[in-house]
Amino acid sequence: MGLKIIQVDAFTNEPFKGNPAAVCILEEHPAEEWMQKVAREMNLSETAFLYKKEDGFRLRWFTPSVEVDLCGHATLAGAHVLWEEGYLKHDEVAYFYTRSGMLKARRKDDWIEMDFPAREEHEVKEHPGLMEALGVKARYIGETRSAYLVELYSEETVNCVKPDFTLLKKLQIRAVIVTSLSSSSEYDFISRFFAPGAGVDEDPVTGSAHCTLGPFWGKKLNKNELTGYQASERGGFVRVRLGGERVFLSGQAVTVLKGEFLHT
Q1: Residues 6+ apart with CB under 8 A from 132
Q2: In which domain, by residue range, is 164 found?
Q3: pLDDT at 263
Q4: Which of 78, 114, 215, 225 is the most buried (most CB within 10 A)?
């Protein structure tokens, strides 16, 4: 039997919603070139590669173009597969060795909670061309080491943003989060995530963005537990619990596809 690969929709409990990620569990460290080729073949925003290490798993994430330092939905998908495929018992904690340090995931009823590093932003002046590329006016602009956070004036504006991805890519901006306060009682804030610099024009649901969104909205709303909705075409919910330098992100996941490689 060939090497298995599993596709999971993350941050949703419904197939064909949330953010799809491919998960490949290996017996040994694979070559980077091979992982990048697989990610390009899968053509999803992220493909996760795991192999056993000490008391946990080494975890790496690849877009179709590059390896990334942190990815929430593919970590959620990977943890889901470890429990579903019997690599871990349902009450065991998943430990992941990553480029962003040790990450953890645990099951909580029908949800999976992940322990991630907080990535707080700081206010900056507008990057030349950024708002022109987004086609909207900003209420606030902040920056982390990996993304800009742009607060807009309304949920309707977030929903209607139509970025000029060609211009965004020319600006050499890796990623942009747009967000606003929610007008719904179902969630506290809304967001969208654009990353043409990493080969993903719009990511359906971005866990790592909530490492910034959680602390940002937590301060503004004076809350330690929040729910965010990422308003892509597929859409998905992320629960956020703040813990100082850590952020606890919770989501659901559903397996939609299982396959095997005929050529490796």
Answers
A1: 164, 167
A2: 122-244
A3: 81
A4: 78
